[in-house]
Amino acid sequence: MTKFCLTVTCATTRGIVAAIATFLAEHGCNITDSSQFDDTETGQFFMRVSFASEEGADQAALEKDFAKIAEDFAMTFAFHDESVKMKVVIMVSRFGHCLNDLLYRVRIGALPVEIVAVISNHMDYQKVVVNNDIPFHYIRVTKENKPEAEAAIMKVVEDSGAELIVLARYMQILSDQMCKVMSGRIINIHHSFLPSFKGANPYKQAYARGVKLIGATSHYVTADLDEGPIIEQDVVRITHAQSPEDFVSLGRDVESQVLARAIHAHANHRVFLNGNKTVVFQASPGSYSSERMG
Fold first, then answer.
1. What CA–CA distance (Å, rounded) separates 291 from 294?
2. CATH architecture entry for 86-280
3. What is the pLDDT of residue 200?
4. 43, CA 20 to 30 Å: which among 54, 137, 188, 213?
5. Is 38 labeled as catalytic in the residue annotation?
């Protein structure tokens, strides 16, 4: 049996859930997991349904037959084959903890993605990447060559068929144009608990304010720096006795975990844009299990 998930966004009204459940039952599909959210402030409805096609209905047939229901409710919808891994390009600069964490998670099957390329503006992690049998692209970025560098980045994305760009501590600001072209398809990890301490050196900013918690935020990238819709966040407790360097060390683990959880949610089609916010549904049972232990 092929397993699919269906994602739906539309204006809230009566009968949406009933129409979807009836459609799937009539097409020989068994629902295995379902999440929904009705935003009373915006009037938007969001739903994600996992199901098994028990009588051979394929994705093309489901999409074609569902079109009438989608038209009736003015839905934005998509069917996704859960066995297909999302293609991802990772971008990194000189801090490699998030990159190394993602390489390991992908290697053991803990993330449903295929890393098709790693791009960096430094050579630090070329050997690590190549040893994982992943293409490494060194693209130098300066103030003078930024348009050409971004064109080279986009060529790698397009040639590799990547559906998502992950900024794993990539320390270059992307242009407004690139943010628009890849809207909703670039995920960043910022080393603070946004909206606090935006921009450069957030750990030093946190130290100067004497905070007792530091955190990390994974969000979609927009033209507004560190203002994109938030996907995932977490924190770690610190004390007055710790230095900014301690903050950096403690923050590494939080950054890695938060970024991995955000990618997991996006790759499993659990994240829905809702204005400048997101709706993030809980993971389906079994979706965090690894294919192997090490």
1. 9
2. 3-Layer(aba) Sandwich (3.40)
3. 77
4. 188
5. no
